[in-house]
């Protein structure tokens, strides 16, 4: 298991970003786990501009495979009085693997105060809960899981997840690394395993400073439709207090 902290502290500065090695235990097949690639992109974006306001939104495209030595670079697209738009790319030997646009936005005085977001449907795992860890040779070995035991829809996941080693990393980098840890929701529809790949990920952060207790985040994903090799899924992340911290959507390619 390689902590994200070690990947970032061993990174080498390059123009507009840094170069880092993707360890074998963060791979999923021939490419790096998407949450790690996104976390690297966010780290580059955070270093691009001084005194950025809180991250509020991200649009991520998983363009190609990333493995071995990769380069994470970022440029400012625009910075106004309230919001900053930063583009970040992660590139490997095979070319551009990920492109993200991160939107950082300060709080604005507003007469609108509306909150109809659903609270977490489950309480966090107790200290003596029996959790499981993925295999060491796969990215899931970096996470600890507790599956929901209730009946879910065929194309739905609900799972408590935390990083096994989350010390000394930015909370939002941690959240991006956690956020893609579920299998695609359509995975539950397969009669036999087939290749599957995330294409896009749209993330809205609902609070300027996401935080949780004991590292636990409750992840939910549900696919409403999976037709012609393409699935669209809705995603939510809650903290241990039951507060919603992320709403997201993801487009997924199904090769079979």
TrEMBL record:
Top-rank taxon: Bacteria
Domain spans labelled Acyl-CoA thioesterase-like C-terminal: 131-252
InterPro entries: ACOT8-like_C, Acyl-CoA_hotdog, HotDog_dom_sf, TesB_ACOT8-like_N
Domain Acyl-CoA thioesterase-like N-terminal HotDog: 22-105
Protein name: Thioesterase family protein
């Amino acid at each position: 298991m390689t902590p994200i902290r070690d990947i970032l502290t061993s990174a080498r500065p390059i123009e507009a970003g840094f170069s880092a090695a993707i360890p074998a235990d963060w791979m999923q097949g021939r490419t790096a786990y998407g949450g790690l690639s996104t976390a690297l992109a966010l780290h580059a974006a955070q270093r691009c501009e001084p005194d950025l306001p809180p991250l509020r939104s991200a649009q991520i495209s998983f363009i190609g495979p990333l493995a071995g030595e990769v380069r994470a670079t970022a440029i400012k697209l625009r910075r106004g009085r309230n919001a900053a738009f930063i583009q970040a790319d992660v590139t490997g030997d095979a070319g551009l693997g990920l492109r993200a646009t991160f939107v950082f936005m300060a709080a604005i005085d507003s007469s609108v105060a509306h909150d109809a977001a659903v609270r977490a449907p489950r309480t966090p795992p107790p200290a003596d809960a029996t959790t499981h860890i993925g295999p060491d040779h796969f990215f899931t070995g970096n996470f600890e899981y507790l599956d929901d035991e209730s009946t879910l829809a065929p194309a739905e996941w609900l799972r408590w997840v935390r990083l096994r080693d989350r010390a000394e990393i930015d909370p939002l980098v941690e959240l991006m690394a956690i956020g893609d840890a579920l299998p695609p929701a359509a995975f539950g529809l397969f009669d036999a395993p087939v290749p599957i790949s995330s294409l896009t990920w749209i993330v809205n952060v609902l609070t300027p400073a996401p935080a949780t207790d004991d590292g636990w985040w409750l992840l939910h994903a549900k696919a409403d439709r999976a037709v012609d090799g393409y699935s669209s899924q809705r995603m939510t992340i809650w903290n241990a207090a039951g507060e919603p911290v992320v709403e997201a959507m993801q487009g997924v390619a199904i090769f079979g």
